[in-house]
Amino acid sequence: MKILIIEDEPRAARQLENLLHKTSFNYELLDVIDTVEDTVIWFKENSDPDLVFMDIQLADGLSFEIFQKIEIEAPIIFTTAFDQYAIQAFKVNSVDYLLKPVQQEDLETALNKFQKSNTNSNNLSSDVLKELLGSLQTPQERAGILVKEGNSFVQIRISELLYVYSQDSITFGVTNTKRYIIDETIDQLFNSLDQTKFYKINRGQIVSKFSIQKIDPYFNHRVKLVLSNPRDQEFIVSRQKTSDFKSWMNS
């Protein structure tokens, strides 16, 4: 069984590879790809794999954009950190998905389902894609967030967050006065935020629009941000996101 992984978080890709290795399924990993653009190129240059694991949020946009550019005949299992509300559309449309962080038992169930299925291609019609895309772009109200303070938990207002970053597998949120530990991954948190106010500038950082003081040009067509209370952090917008980030800032 030839497998392709489309995932922009290296840690999540490695975890999925490790889980696959623990299963009894014989497979060959063809490649790991992290952007919409590179996925389109890969499918144009290669034969379809037997199975694709596809993350929803990639480095340069939502993976559903891939289907607007090319046809993929291979079966797909989506991986997503979106919350239970958003993935209702997956259930309604009978689209296979795995909720992050992926668990061994869930992966094996999905693989067993794939092997027992007589379907040789995915069933993602344009209507299904629109339904999924619409559900994932639905604004979600979230006023507060639970954070660690010593041995206890306190709630802070989302409006207080200047930026969020991941370091050594720990998610930190920074306000004007303090840094907090957040018991969520970067993806889980970002998917619950108002994305007109917050932007994921790279794999490990989310910034608030209102914390950005200055935008400077940076090498390799990237930009560097100057934020309030930076706490020795550098904020570099990834090359794939620079154009979209500028549009977001203008909105």
Any overview of this molecule?
There is one protein chain. With 251 residues, the chain is α+β, with helices and mostly antiparallel strands. It folds into two domains: 2-136, Rossmann fold, CATH 3.40.50.2300; 144-250, OB fold (Dihydrolipoamide Acetyltransferase, E2P) (Beta Barrel). It has seven helices and 17 strands. The strands form four sheets. Strands 9-8-12-11-10-14-13 form a seven-stranded antiparallel β-sheet, with helices on one face. Strand 11 (170-174) and strand 12 form a beta hairpin. It is globular, with a radius of gyration of 19 Å. The mean pLDDT is 85. Keywords: Phosphoprotein. The modification 4-aspartylphosphate is found at residue 55. It holds the Pfam family LytTR.
Number of strands: 17
Instruction: Report the helical percentage.
Output: 25-40%
Shape: globular
The CATH class of the largest domain is: Alpha Beta
Architecture of the largest domain, according to CATH? 3-Layer(aba) Sandwich
- Numbering strands along the chain, what is their spatial order in the largest sheet? 9-8-12-11-10-14-13
Low-confidence stretches: none
Secondary-structure map with pairings?
Layout lengths: L1 E5 L3 H13 L5 E6 L2 H10 L5 E5 L1 E2 L2 E2 L13 E5 L7 H5 L4 E3 L4 H13 L9 H11 L7 E6 L2 E6 L5 E5 L2 E5 L4 E4 L3 H5 L7 E5 L2 E4 L3 E7 L3 E6 L7 E3 L4 H9 L1
Parallel strand pairs: 1-2, 1-3, 3-6, 6-7
Antiparallel strand pairs: 4-5, 8-9, 8-12, 10-11, 10-14, 11-12, 13-14, 15-16, 16-17
